[in-house]
Amino acid sequence: MTAAQPATARKPWYYVLYIQVLIAIAVGILIGRFSPKTGIAFKPLGDAFVALIRMMIAPVIFCVIVQGIAGMADIKKVGKVGIKTLIYFELVSTLALLIGVAVAVAIHPGAGLNINLATLNPKAAAVYVGRAKETGFIPFLLSFIPKTFVDAFASGEVPEVLLISILTGFAIAPLGEFGARAVRAVEVANKIVFGIIRIIIRTAPLGALGGMAFTVGSYGMASLSNLIKLIGTFYLTSLIFVVLVLGAIAWWAGFSIFRFLAYIKDELLIVLGTSSSETVLPDMMRKLEGLGASRSVVGLVFPTGYVFNTDGTNIYLALSALFLAQATGTHLSFGQISGMLLFALIASKGGSGVTGTGFVTLAAILAAVPSIPVQGLALLVGIEKFMSECRALTNVVGNGVATLVVSRWQGELDSVKMREVMSHAADQSTPPAA
Q: What is the distance in angstroms between the CA of the first residue and the CA of the last residue of the chain?
């Protein structure tokens, strides 16, 4: 900057998005605490924000993935990136499950509850048990195939949109000049889509306020006293996973996990308020590109992580299943625990960041491991919202780290830019222009 250039004026603190979201969360908690009926009435605000973001998920994934695949000069590169990504996802997902088991065994969050199954209301979790029947390896594979091409966009299901996007990208890639024109058209559409996202994201404080007011107003803290230990154990386990496991991976990839968390603080607060990782998918992709990761790798890895890399969900599944076993006095052998983990590794795939997905998957695991009484799910219904928040937060951080790691493997990460941007994260609410 020369002397003739004026310094860029700093935005007033109340214009910064993450501060607005923080204030909204605090106000929502107060409303829910002191006026529960009013808090419950605020639910449509949170629902509307989540719905607005979900409305844009399909076009975002389609534009970014098609542009990434079709724009690669070497189609073999797509396969290489995909294989590396899946290997990483499976390794880290397995670690998440093992850490969940280790903490549950060490802390015993369900010990001493001595729950009498006859006192539980099986109807409280019946809807989740019914949906769990559709969970499994074959249904998971079939979930990628939409009824029609257009139906993938109408339903907005991430696996279906992924399949359509990948096929379209591969179809455009060999078309030469015609394909290049198609890619340019997708680029224009992509700019329009992200323009809409920027407008919607400004309403995030309202969404966070509605979500938190409803949560506190509906459940309160007093009714959760006997399950506070499980909630605390889950948050502690997720924190350990993020700091130690993802922190070590981030260090290997050349960045600090704490600076990365500071860089995506806006998105984390939005996830906290809405309990859904889908609400930040578009903005996270933009921010990862702002760190110097290539657009093609970001477009392939980050959305795919919503299907294959649900670290927070894996921790939740292992921890909650063992909690229910401990709470109901059910002894599990090493073989039963191992079988549960293998099933969880498969069943956890396909969670697209929607609130409740992890609970449905847990119901499927209990159905597959009959030693743990499935009616024990009734214990967890009241705290599902709080658990969902932690699952979503961990999933977002895990997918962000995965994207940067794969970009580094591919030699498509501008490490200098990444460190520079992260070093200023504490003073910036948005990434600098690429």
A: 18
Tens of pLDDT along 220-258?
655 455 567 788 888 999 999 999 999 999 999 889 999
The H or E element containing residue 241 is none
Q: Which residues are 293's β-sheet partners?
A: 413
- Residue 434 within a domain: no
- Alpha-carbon gap, residue 402 to 284, rounded angstroms: 12
CATH number at residue 190: 1.10.3860.10
DSSP 270-338: HHHHHS-GGGGHHHHHHHHHHTTB-HHHHHHHHHHHHHH--HHHHHHHHHHHHHHHHHTT----HHHHH
What is the tens place of the pLDDT at every residue in 130-179?
555 555 556 666 767 888 888 888 876 767 877 888 888 888 877 878 88
**Is residue 432 in a domain?**
no
Identity of residue 40: I
Instruction: Report helix, strand or coil for 23.
Output: helix
Phi, psi of 415 (to 5 degrees): -65, -35
Give the H/E segment covering residue 75.
Answer: helix 75-107
Q: What is the pTM of this model?
A: 0.69
Residue 80 token pair: 């290489």
Q: Provide the domain count of the chain.
A: 1
The phi-psi region of residue 120 (left if phi > 0; otherwise alpha if psi is between -120 and 50; otherwise beta) is beta
Report d(CA 95, CA 246) in Å as an integer: 10
Sequence-distant contacts of 156-163: CB under 8 A, at least 24 apart: 156/54, 156/55, 156/57, 156/58, 157/352, 158/57, 158/61, 158/303, 158/306, 158/307, 158/352, 158/353, 159/307, 159/350, 159/352, 161/57, 161/58, 161/61, 161/62, 162/61, 162/65, 162/303, 162/304, 162/307
Enclosing H/E stretch for 14: none
For residue 221, which phi and psi values (nearest 5 degrees)? -100, -30
- Of residues 265 and 135, the one with the higher pLDDT is 265
